[in-house]
Amino acid sequence: MTNVTEIDWKGENITYLIPFLGNSKKYLILLVEENSAENIDFSKGTIVDHEVDSVTGSGTISIFTEENYIKQTFEDGIMTKNSTSKPKNFRQCFDQAYNDICDGFVGCASWYSSPLPALTAIAYCGATT
Q: Is the entire prediction scored with pTM above 0.90?
């Protein structure tokens, strides 16, 4: 992982902002308790896709969590629409990616020893669901 921003909230929680390699306006955001920073659960992350033009103030912000999908639409800096829905099979997609990768010792070792397989699964499932 490169360009990860770490924000320490007064010793209580740490927030990690992890940009996607192919899209600098899309981030994985992880909120981690200070004492559990070594055991991060990437499935509880939030994906934020910020597509609002900084000049015109128009565009969308999409927020993907395990429970919800929120899409906010802006025109000239004013939110014109805010919709919430359930994600379409994100969890099923993520579980299938886990099963495909962790089907033996080598696959499971790579899944648990590096965050990259899980992040790849999150990016893929977030983009396709």
A: no
